[in-house]
Every structure is written in C-alpha cells, then in structure tokens.
Amino acid sequence: MSATWQPDLLGTGYEQHTLELGTDPDGEGRITAVVVRRVPLEDEQPHGAVLYVHGFADYFFQTELADFFAERGLAFYALDLRKSGRARSEGHTAHYVTDLELYDVELERSLELVADEHPDSPVVVVAHSTGGLITPLWLDRRRRAGRTDPVAGLVLNSPWFDLQGKPRMRHAVTQAVRILARIAPLRVLDLPATSVYGDSLHAERGGTWHYDLMLKPLAGFPVTVGWLNAVRRGQARLHRGLDVGVPSLVLRSDKTHYSRTHSPASDRADTVLDVQQIARWAGCLGGETTVQPIEDARHDVFLSLDVPRRRSYDAVDGWLRRLGLTEPFPDPPA
C-alpha cells in the first residue's frame, strides 16, 4: 500500500497518514484512523519497526518513547484508533465502539503499512492500558487465522486485563452493562470524576509532560455503557486464555494507589488500574510471557518519574536484546 504522509501536530520529525475506514458500524457517520510515524534520521538504518497503540482517553504524543526505539534500530509508528485522538471528528463519541474486534480493521491496515515500508522486517507491537487489551485479542485472532508475521513481539504497558473493584461489584456491573448495552449503548455511566492521574502528568498541573488536553483530558472522557460492555466481553475472552503467537513483555507498577486528590503517592503508583489484576491475568496471553513490575511507576510506566521511567526503559531494552531484536545502544533516556 502507498501512504500519503502529511505534517503531524507533533511538528518536525513526525508525519501522519489518515486511514479512511468508511461508514461507522456503530452509526456515527464516516470514521478514520490516523497512523503517525517518526521520520528516521539520515544516519538511521532501521532493521525492524514498532507499532504503538494508545489507551482510553489517550493518543500518541510520547516522542521520548519513539526516540528510544529508534535508537535501537526500530522505526516507530503509532496508531490513533477510530474516534480517538487525531481521528476523532465532530459527532463522534470519544473512543466509542461496541466490539473491540472492530479495531482489527485499522490494526491490520496499519501493520500492512509498516510492513510495506519495512519489508521482511520484524514488528514489535507496543500498547498501553485499553490498547493492552485490544492488541492481544487482535493478535490471538491473527494466530488462529494462521497469521503471525511480521509481528515478532508484544510489549504491554499497564494493560487493562480486568475491571477494578471487588468480585461481587465487578459481576454486578458486568451484568448491568450487558443489559443496558442492548437498549441504551450510548448512555453515559455516572462515575466519580477525578483528574488525579492527569494532574500528576501534565506540565500545567505540576507534571512533566506536554500534550493536548482536548485529545487527552485531565479527567478523561465519559464512559459509555456500550463501550464498557465491549471491554468486559474482551476481558472475558482474555480470561479464557489466548495465544498471541509471539513473546510478550508486561510492564506494570509495583503498587496501586486510588485517591480522589493528588498527593506525592499519586506520582509513584498506578492510580488507574489494579496492578494485582494485571499480574493475575498476564499468564492468559499464552506462550513466553515476561512480567516486570516497575517500582514507583505510574499507570503509563513511560511517563513515570525519572528513576522508574529509566527502569521501564531498561526492562524493554533487556527484553529486546534477549529476543535478538536489537543490539546494545546508548543508555535509555534519563
């Protein structure tokens, strides 16, 4: 396939290509997805590539992560899924889908684009949070269809493997959204709003990172019944056991800290997901799986404070070397 690359909102060194996906099967008009690429420097000769997939209420902006992989010989591409980030248009309910399998369309087309630009090269899929649920389900379906190439590895950054809360509460919520999704899929759940995670990240709130608050709001986007039902169905499928067909690395914080207000503890823990659930279900990916807790990491381990962020990069670096997907390179970003 031939991609038409345009300047990206990240500025110099980044370009984007829009994937036209046609009419939304969930009834919200025309939809697209957007692939972003880091333009290789003149002296870079990639021997492989990365395809990155974001989570809920998120989009790709992590240029440090892209540089990390590029320094290790892996060209970097990121996908903003339908109705997410760069791909969300007027009239779209942010991140709304009724079945996670619908994402297979843009995932396959993105992978085809990467493979076309880097023929016969291994591709590492990297995904965060909800993306860390979407991508294993996709790779399991590819494997069952007899396709694994060119994917050679999977890195999951705090994947959303289960619904937070006690078992009785999870069961009740799951049954309720299953029923409501049939009659009012766009109904917004009345959940307590919190910006603790966003406050820990964004530069305007005392954090380190700069990103577009229209694309990644401090308190996230409203959660719809139909979307949560799709997530719960995907999690149930994961719990029955997958086989993604490639080695996996699962990164997570060593602790969870839930709070309605920001504190120093919020900067050294996952304030979004229950990390013990990640540990429990990581074995469901099938095949060779490495689980690496990162002391004091945030929900997005690559947006952590300096020391845990360095540990996260070290873990990925070592894993890539063990798989033979890179050679020793300079130290990861400090």
TrEMBL record:
Keywords (A to Z) from UniProt: Hydrolase
Organism in which the protein naturally occurs: Nocardioides exalbidus
InterPro entries documented for this protein: AB_hydrolase_fold, Hydrolase_4, MAG_DAG_Lipase
Protein name, per record: Lysophospholipase, alpha-beta hydrolase superfamily
Transmembrane domains' residue ranges: none
Domain Serine aminopeptidase S33: from-to ranges: 45-255
Keyword Hydrolase set for record: yes
The keyword Nucleotidyltransferase is annotated on this UniProt entry: no
